[in-house]
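Sample intake sheet
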Amino acid sequence: MHKRHLDIQHPLPAGRQGNPRQRVFPNLAKSIEIPYVKIDRPEPERRNHFKIPVLAALVIFLLIVGFFGLNLARFKQRAETAAPIVHDNFKEGVAALLRFDLGSAKDYFQAASGELSDLTANSPLKTVPAILKNLFQISQTAVAFSEDLQNLEANGLAMIVGKKGAMVIKLLHDIQDRLAQISGLSSELKVQAAGAGYNVDAETGDVSSKFPEADRFLTAVLAWLEAPKKQRLLIFFQNPSEIRPGGGFIGSYGNITLFQGNLLDLEVRDIYDPDGQLKAKIIPPKPLQGITGVWGARDANWFFDFPLSAEKTIDFLELSKIYSEKGIKFSGAVAVNVELIKDVLEIIGPIELPEYQLTLTPDNFLEEVQREVETGDDKSRGEPKKILKVLTPILFERLGNLNEDQKSRLLDKLTARFANKDIMVYFRDSTIENYLQTLGAAGEVARLPDDFVGGYLAVANANVAGGKSDAFIDQQITLESKIDSTGLVKNHLVVRRSHGGENEKDWWYRSTNHNYLQIFTEPGTKLISMSGDTKKVIKPLVNYNAGNYEPDSDLVAVERKGGLAFGKENFSAWLDVKAGASKDLVVDYAGSQHLKLGNLAYQFIFDKQSGVRGGLEYAIEAPDGYHWKESQSRTFKYANENPPARIVLNLTLEEDPR
């Protein structure tokens, strides 16, 4: 399999040289749902999220630029020269803004503003046309908006850690005000264009409806920050060496206390601390019943849908006496995989821990911390995760004192981790959570529309008493789909898992990888056959019919036979792999409905599991007499050795020419 490289280039403002610094914030807009990978396939689907409608405004401007200068030849010539420059810079400014490449966005808007300013200053008209003034105001406001976002992006964390929350709140208010200004100016521009006989509804589409959505989000965030009470967020430290459906096993977590945007406290705990004071007797997931009698926060990261995993973990923590006796509630959670800690160490440099006689670096972080947790002196004292309690405040202190170059590098790292689902955010406030999902930062399972035509695939793994062996597991997924002459889609799936930890000195890496695997497909698919799986019978440690054990309704819904999980069919199996070995799980399944053949739009969606390393190969074969428009052949192929969080491929089935 050939490695695919991202090939994304965006021009600088007209007249500028070089390449602007690019930052692709994951799914900030639907138009960049996944990074574009330049191979023989269609461009992934692009989401339409909040957009500043300056591009639509420029289209209007181009249409009417000659309207107010018909009898002014020189001004008309100058305007016509400026128009494409303004248009291109607005267009690229909006694109950069949606990529969260704020530095380039500011440059583009400033270039457009400069052209409009020069055009206005040289106008021979006594009164500058209102539409020109409007465009200039939009460009100026867009520049200020970009500057505010840049400031928040670069300095927001330092402000919070440095107890300058009031500055963060003011910035957010300024951003909200700028959005309101741009929204109002854009509405005026539409009216002005209509008065000149131009209908721009086709150009603006539903962009205007996105302004209220963004405003509601900012209002909710500001209400949360400005509330006259302490707000608490959780940080889940996920360890992908022990994979779970929602990411990695949550061995430790942080409890962040904020007051009006100021960091008051950061407490790091072992996940077993609250579970040790949990009185609730909840029946655990069936695959875990052979190793634990009750469910708790330590195992609540069980759902492939991260918002549900996060909510379940928070529920268990709040039930623990550690928090319930104090009435403590949490607003949400941020899950981070340990790979992010390695990124941070690359930027801030090594950290000395004298009491452990350790110097932590990106190269030894996971190994040394894991060894300390498993065999260190703290474990004999009943505090195996103490090293994380010592390390985390040092990390936050260093992060609050980054220089400009370090801030830029950190933001690049964060962007990549968001795109790969190594960072996921959940908020209980539905307005904030819904917006996080539109940004692609929430780790939710893709929701399929009722009229969905296509295929969906996700593979979720759960390490159950398999040590830390997932650190050396490579997973390759190969899906071959074929549409027959009746329109029925048949699928052949191979999941190959290879264990490369046979030569590691630590037993937890050499352990057999005991893996419970779930396959999620589009609704209506039927399992035909499955082979290669490990046969296993789970014997519960306790009798759940006695002792007042309670079922969890969400878990019951997911485990129900014949039911849908997150709106998907679910096939599950065990796949145990010994160190040094590889095993294939082979699954054949088919759809239950026949597609109506002809010129047909077909979509394939793949959701990646957080924390899993490996590639994806996908091929779909058209029926006789048909081909795929995107490949101009009967078979369309896609391959990616490190797929992003979500892949959406839009395909078009066409009839062969006669």
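Comment: The mean pLDDT is 83. The first strand starts at residue 231 and ends at 244.
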